[in-house]
Amino acid sequence: MDSLIINKITITVVPFLASLLIKFLARTMKLTYINFEKIRDDWQRGKNVIIAFWHGRLMFMPVMYKGNGVSVLVSQHRDGELIARTVRRFGISSVRGSSTRGWFGGVKGLLREIKKGKDIAITPDGPKGPRFNAQMG
To answer: Rounded distance, CA 72 to CA 38, Å?
Structure first.
């Protein structure tokens, strides 16, 4: 099979299956919000928030987010496209960019989303690790 066809199938099927898995897992787990009151108060006052998820926890962001609209910063690589298409199934928009590629466009995109009144979500630990340690950029 032609690799272009395989890529098109992958980019369509994987986000669909990932969204089903996320929805299923969300029904089987108990979510605990710690110190959520401050964020909820900011939302009630119409303020934007910046939400940070570790890379290993990003999968559950669509079911944990309780605000009025969020845009997530995702890489311009192929895995970023899969993430963007998956979160879109939950009504979440994405901005493309990373610390090494397209960072300026990513920052501009996030600022545009903030001006629209959206919250933004980022992953501070970078895809190359180390896990659970904030990285520059």
So the answer is: 21
For residues 91-108, one letter each, b for 16 or more C-beta atoms within 10 angstroms of the residue's C-beta and e for the rest, the string is ebebbbbbeeebeeebee
Question: How many Cβ atoms from other residues are within 10 Å of residue 31's Cβ?
Answer: 9
Residue whose entry in the numeric block shows the structure tokens 């979500």? 121
What confidence tens digit (pLDDT) does each residue in 19-43 have? 999 999 999 988 888 888 898 899 8
Domain total of the chain: 1
State the DSSP H helix or E strand holding residue 116, giving kind and residue range, or none if neither: none
In a domain, 28, yes or no: yes
Which of 9, 3, 1, 15 lies closest to 82 in space, CA to CA? 15
Q: 55, 123 in Cβ contact below 8 A?
A: yes
Give me 114's structure tokens.
């903030």
Query: Global pTM?
Result: 0.83
Asked whether residue 127 is assigned to any structural domain, the reply reads no
Give the residue numbers spanning the domain of 74.
Answer: 3-122
